[in-house]
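Reproducibility note. Readers wishing to regenerate the assembly model reported in the main text can use the exact inputs given here. Chain order matters: entities are listed in the order in which they were concatenated for prediction.
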Amino acid sequence: MTTVLEINVDEIIPNARAILMQQGVPEHATGLAELLAVAEDARDVLAATLAPAGVLENVETGEFGDIYSGQGFNAHETPLQLIFPRAENLSLFAVTCGQAVCDRIRDLFNINDYPLGSALDAGASLAADQAAQVAQDKFTRTLEGRLGVLRYSPGYCGWHVSGQKALFDRLDPVAAGITLSESCLMRPLKSVSGVIVSGPPDIHRFANDYPFCSACTGKECRERIQAMPTPFEKEI
Amino acid sequence: MELLDRIAEQLDQGKADQVAALTAEAIALGLPAGTILNEGLIAGMDVVGEKFRTHQVFLPHVLLSARAMHAGMDLLKPLLIQQDVPSAGKAVLGTVRGDQHDIGKNLVGIMLEGAGFEVIDLGTDVAPEKFLAAVREHDARVIGMSALLTTTMPVMKEVVDLLTREGLAGRVKTVIGGAPVTEDYAREIGADAYAFDGISAVDRIRQLVGDA
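Running the prediction on these inputs yields the following structure tokens for the assembly.
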């Protein structure tokens, strides 16, 4: 059954420092008063334009296997193909920041307000990711026992972005206002989808020596694995 | 301090109002528009670009400077046309068919304009034929293509192949970029260059225009 998520703006809006870091400013950089002021302005615009929404739906392992195969374009070997068969629970998810913030970003660039447009873009990306975290937290609250919970998305770690099609066929996140284009592009742009996987924490640990890892500039998998408590104990 | 140096300095500081005021002063003094552009605005952006390359400043700083550049350019543009000042070159930019991501492409456009290029921005979801038509219409020598999806990257090759079929390869240079795009991919599809970010795009395109 599809669960429509209620996501509050306050839960996902990033702080000014985080926005600057998303724009490539190092964490401990100094003399940033002017940039922080722009980032604060971006926060104000985010507060006025974010319209977060999302959906969550549990799936069985076998069914997810079909979804994960997608159109057959995944990398030959991927971490997720080893992870999900050992999972205890799987849930598809899709979340979005809404169209209004995307429109505002475009408008700001059109009037040459690049600093605010870029800060808003960075802030909306962080907000979308945080909305995915809200979905993950909600899923986690339904679990019992000592579990590691992480999420994975098409377009990353060898899961080809065309996998969005099968995922959207099953999840149908229109209730959250999210649609998919022919090229597997989510609209609104500031949206995140994928699968949340729970199970023994060790199932999520993998070496980043897959062929596609060398081309990956993000390396967020390392941080996420590291941030996962071991063993994870659900807070009750 | 000389007026043009002050324009460059204020631009480096990202002060849009001051850049506009100083540009207006330079125009009022009768300085040639090309001189104001090259020795004031572009000189200032070059300083910012170098600071970015050497990690003395970061993207948001560059964008403040780019906004200041535009404040000056708004005043200067009519004079550049009136005085028939040539641009550094013409570049057609677009996010390829099927892809709506445009922030990276926009940043490249901003940096190119800051370097004195005329930018024809075709927007997002641009078909190969539209790139070709724009090149012909504007007599542009560079196509810059952006893609953020692995599913849309192959459209870049379609554009490169189309230029070859139309006998424009070599004369029209291609630069590609975007999160999943790499130097190797550029080589693989026969693009002339890969650019990691807006500043490197300016460097690559300057080289390509120089080579053309």
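We highlight two features of this model. Chain A is about 40% helix and 15% strand. Strands of chain A lie at 3-5, 53-59, 89-96, 148-152, 179-180, 186-187, 191-199.
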